[in-house]
Amino acid sequence: MSDANGQKNKLGTVAISGAVVLAIGAGVYLMSQKPEASKNTTPENTATDTTTSTTTDPATHSEYEDGTYTAVGNYISPGGPETVGITLTIANGIITDASAEVQATLPFSVNMQTAFADGFKSMIVGKSLDEVSLDKVSGSSLTPIGFNDAVEKIKVEAQS
Amino acid sequence: MSFSFEAIGTKWIIDLPELSQEEQNVIQRKIRERIADFDHTYSRFKKDSLVTTMSQQAGTYTLPSDADALMRFYKQLYDVTNSAVTPLIGQTLVDAGYDASYSLKPQAAISTPKSWESVISWDNPHITLKEPALLDIGAAGKGYLVDIISELIEQDGITSYCVDAGGDMRHRGNKPLTVGLENPFDTKQIIGVAAIQNQSLCGSAGNRRVWDRFHHTINPHTLSSPTHIVATWVIAPNTMIADGFATALLFVSPEKLLSISPFAYCYVKENGEAVRSPNFSAQLFTN
To answer: pTM higher than 0.80, yes or no?
Structure first.
């Protein structure tokens, strides 16, 4: 594995933990906002006996009907505005599952800005197009016939 | 599975794996009409386009509804690149020889573009040109058109596609796309393979449209074509951004563009060194 790939694994871990922190943070935000349930019934606004609850975690306040809730959170990373899709599963008033899906590119921490600006460097090595199996190739746009014809015409003129 | 055609001076390849041959024929017609429509407004290579008309007469013109996103993005690029990326580059390109008839012969004097503020006033959907001006939207226009065509495809309920206009592409689907990064020094080779999924990738290089001392990107401050970087690739949330950023990277360092949008990049310097951001999802070949 090249250095660049090793670096990528570390980055992936940081990005995932960042997303998880955001998921929890967004989860708390969402709970306080009473998100709409993804199923048709709305959460019941039943008062519950909270004297037996041992934490102040809003997730244990069983004001929310069991089910799966989804919402999209917005946040600003140093890399720019990002969206994250949050899915929460609630059973007996407790979040039993949470997942986050980063919907844009990886969020950047302040430390990563420098890594982004400087980038990873390596000398290029070319491989023949025949050697690698690909869906597509990207480089400069293929030129129109008119352009190539004009180049040829000028070459001819220059030689005369 | 896919069809291809020539339009706006390059080769388009459209992948629509969910569609039958007949369905592809129907959508191909819609796509080509929409491209022709776009070209009729924005192409400086067409005698009867709106852009050509605006280059002959100052005044206020009504642009189509697709203009706003492009104009606003161009202004952001203009500001962040210190006016190096400008839609007013049209006359400079023409003077250098990259004109509608491909004369490819530079004039003795090459025009310097005026400032945006001194010429253009944008109040969607109206553009006011205080003097006749030849706009060129090559830096981001193709990418934007890829987005427009992609949205046309999505309106039909299609969720799996790739729209590729000469290597500027937008992908949707549940399998990633592998894209070879063309070696700017030898186009029979690639220098690595990128993977994109539900993203856009644009590539830019100064190796094809080359004539005299120029290639198709000219720095308005130096009136010369950048040579320190010979190829750029950008992965971004949409193709307009990827396209614009691929050009902008010839003029500014990458973190300057983060204020506009998150993205990933890779570029090759004229000495053969590749520089890529940590989040550029590609394997570059090494010795």
So the answer is: no
